[in-house]
Amino acid sequence: MGNGPLSCEECVEQFIGCIVVAFLTSGSLEEFLEEAFDCLLDLIDCVFGDDIDGALAAKNKLNQARAKFNAKLN
Question: Per its UniProt entry, which superkingdom is the organism in (predicted)?
Answer without folding.
Answer: Bacteria
